[in-house]
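re: ur question from the group chat, yeah i did fold both. here u go
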Amino acid sequence: MIKRFAISVLLLAGVCSPARGWLLEGHHILTLSAVAALPDEVPAFFRQGAKTVAHLSIDPDMGKNRGTPQVRGAEYPEHFLDREMLDVEALPESRYAFVKLCYEHGVSPEKMGFVPYAVNEWTERLAVAFAEFRKWPDNPHIQSKCLIYAGFLAHYAEDMCQPLHLTIHYDGRVQEGGEKLQRGIHLKVDGLVQFLKMEPGDLSRDQDVTPFENTMSEIMREFEEGFALVDRVYEMGPNIPRYDEENWVPNAEVVAFAKDRARAATRFTARLYLTAWRLSERLEIADYVKREVWDGE
């Protein structure tokens, strides 16, 4: 998703997304990679459902259809957070504490963005769905729900690993007079996964996939690590190819950076999946939830 600037490429008839992270094919590749990196303790139906999860990882961007302005407006800020807009040492762990802090500092939260909160909330949604699976392992509706939630989680987690989703300089370095240097850089970075023809097997290989102990703290750690790379992205900017460039001379630093970010996105997403699975073991499903009756199991 290319954040907050118009592009001329139509996603589908009537759909134009100004905020596509890693481009759609990139999300598909990264999500296949994340599922492939999972250990065997994650249920087989989930690992075998990689193509479905990858399909659904594109859906958050589908909500940007200009013909559905309400969902577009609600969806838009889920994909980024412009860290410089709030001059505080650390961000709160909950969405509404963050919203309160924004208002206290005169910042519009929907302008700043919510991506780390979207990541955490979808991780917990997936954990609840996994808890249902543990109780009703043969229920196909619950299995489908797990794959759907995982697709949405993948999208936001992968977006958060693209440094230009974390800064006010999302598509060009903003100057004092409002001018932007290197306008168009966001699309170039978004296109690197597909431009370099990265393969899920390569991205998932030898990944250290462990669960998070404190999920939101680790999400914020990942956020800050990505935010620290913004200056490096701009230093490489002139050497980064557009996704449709035909005569690019390979640049070793750009290639290494792109692969590092893609592997980081793969690992981060896989760790969130494993975290959700482990968390689900500790969750209780109330007795009044009678899936076996309602679903005819």
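okk and heres the other one u asked abt
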Amino acid sequence: MADMMGVMLDCSRNGVLRPQQVKKYAELIAKMGYNTLMLYTEDTYEVNNQPYFGYRRGRYTKEELKELDAFCNSIGVTLMPCIQTLAHLNCIFRWQGVYDGVQDIDDILLAGEDGTYQLIDDMFATIAECFSTKDIHIGMDEAYLVGLGEYLRRHGPQKRFDVINNHLKKVCEIARKYDLKPMIWSDMFCKLALNTANYYTQADTAVIAEMPEMPENISLVYWDYYSSDYDRYVRMLKTNLMFNRPVVFAGGAWTWTGFGPKNQYSIDNTAAALRACRDCGVKDIFITIWGDDGSECSMFAVLPALLYAAEARKGEVDIDRLKEKFLEIVGADWDSFMLLDKIQLNNRFDTTLLYSDAFAGLSDWRYDGTEDAYFAALADEIAAQKQVGSFSYMFKKYEMLCRALAIKSDLGIRTRKAYLDGDKAALEKLAKEDYPEAICRIEAFYQAHRTEWLTEKRPQGFEVQDIRLGGVQQRLRSCIATLLSYVSGELSQIEELEEPVLPSDGGTHCWRKLVTAGVISHNVH
């Protein structure tokens, strides 16, 4: 079997790629030299005997998966299932009375429970029916609280490594029943085996020999996309190899920190990672494209990072030839796509600017007042790009985003300054001109974003974008009403603007942490 060079598409964070778009992606990466395409589906695929699994989530039907499998095979690409069999299944637990009996805690399945293994059996039966490959990624990452919920109540304190390892053995037995060859994300296994919360930097590999072995029919996937440190990758690859199981490396093409991509950051990290893989003899590789917090970035926006990874796998990369090849394959200009990286301003997320409340100013302390001009110029630069292939709709979205950010980015800062200066004339101008203009531009961005979404993805999940972007506009309308009431003398003060803005962790791109300091929901699901 040829060494794997794959791409993983996240179809679980509200954005389920339309089958026709999956085919388009498969064709593009096949031309780049990839031979594997993974669909990361937590609950977004039909499962035998499980009508609530993926209900209202835009799940793929069995017929669609079979069709995609056949299509990918016809162009020399293996379509590989990438699912979850322990954690990251929070969406199924919203259906009360359906999956309660197989829940340990939060998004984690209950290890040792017969119902859990019946569910996994149904998953594997469906996978075996729909995919021609026998390879399967069964997840098991980030199950930080495994064994600490219902499992703890039933069984009392247990070694958590034993809990996850025994669960893994049972899952692998079911996989063997269907002749499937599983791989898992290695982080949880390594953390528990090494007794560390952060095995990326604090692993004591001396304890590995003391741990029981994992099942024979398993491969470990070391995932890492946060560093350009070659030595770190070498150290971590060697740590994973010490378990004496096949090791796969998973890098990342960054699409999960807002609406904009991070191609150059992905390229820099990939270069170091793939060099380490070559030196450590790790030959199976794939690049993940995650959709954390709502799949707001197009998966096509990181095509440059994917082409770079495919070429870097072979050795040194000729950047001029790379650009020529990108034009040949994608039908678009490399530099035009790389321009989109500029939306993430010095690692200050576009979502921070867009979602931050104009009165609360939770992130205002991080900005210097130059953002409006920056995004106005960037909008014009994006609009001027002519060689964008079939992705004009995507570039229109990013142009409209920048035009919205050109006025929204410092709206709260200007509002607070005028208020503290006692300048009611400036506040009235803001309320009657700038705030309405911001609403208008955000609406234009919303329409372009909606066009992109419905072109690439199923409609299920876009309701979250409706809520978020509609919420931004309605909040601005509310701020207008408050400002005008203050200007007219109806209000003696604006309470939100009386409170000083304090520095806080500005590293988040997560919507619920940006829009309010209040409570969105107590429900962890």
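fwiw on the second one: The longest strand covers residues 5-10. The chain has a mean pLDDT of 94. idk if thats what u expected
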